[in-house]
Amino acid sequence: MSTVSSRPIRVSRRRVLGVALASAFAGSLAAPLSSATAAEPVDLSGVTLRIGIFEDVTRDAIEATDFLKGTPYKIQWARLNGAGPTVQALGGNAIDISWGLSDTAPAKASAEDRQNWTAQNAPIKVIALLKPLDEEKFSNSLIAAHKNAGIKTLADLKGKTYAYNEGGNINALALLGLHAAGLTTKDVQVRLLTYDATSTALIAGAVNAAPVTRARVADALADGTLVEIARDIDVGFPGYVSVTGRTAAIEDPKLGAAIGDFLNRLAKYLRWASARPEDVAKSYVKTQQLSQKDALNAARAKAVTLIPVNPGSPGFDKEIVATGKLVTAGFYPRPVDFATVVDGRFAEQIVSGDKVPTN
């Protein structure tokens, strides 16, 4: 199995999406959708599945187990920083799938294009959702404030410095939090930072408040440096992230089969990892130099399971409701149909993987 990380990717978003749209549309005319669950075995010996991730700990933790051992295809990892670069990498054929991309990112890219994408020409699609194991205690994301900022409620954000990165779930949560308090971006001092820099700036007190991923600030929440103001679910946000793929990769007979196999393995791994935070914590110690205690907090905060996103599933229904709220909050510049950026063909592999007992 190959595990070669790619260099940072810089691609013109307009050019990338234009090329990807043309390719996806042409592919939809040329042939019917291939089935990722075809009965006939597919030779994947020459296939390389390129996977984008947001944190090194993601790769380190799963590679410390046997869940990816013996894949009939090679895996190439790419470490990306934020929703925008990941959407560009998918649209530019630099990666095949993203593990951890904001579930809102494909719909936002559609709403920001010249015309909304359709199910037939969308160049990227959500193929699975990562659902927090304990949404009440460990929501995936939250709005937090530095202990010295004097912020106790969302209304207290008024006039304060408020940081987030554009394009994904953190951006969405930032606007939903303001909307819930009757505020807009005009009522705060917005600081646009990268995904990696946002949590660092908040912990250092360089900004007063920010929406952040819980696992990235678990240690600062535990020691009181940061104060939790609101969880994602408190402002009507499901708190999911996604596995999103290039439509051309999903529909390719060989890449589609590799993606289906990977999702099955991923579902098994995530179910196993959610029950063994002590094992996952070792990767946080290694990659983020956290103490054992803080690493365990991070691992528990990151515990998720993989769920299908096919129409009619609970995850899909929550996404539809959230999409409407995000239009109202101004995250999407115009109404968008979440169903157009979803492909549920891998539901069987996901469900069977999640239910398979592991030792």
From TrEMBL:
Residues annotated as signal peptide: 1-30
InterPro entries: SsuA/THI5, TAT_signal
UniProt keyword terms in alphabetical order: Signal
Domain SsuA/THI5-like: from-to ranges: 139-238
Annotated protein name in UniProt: ABC transporter substrate-binding protein
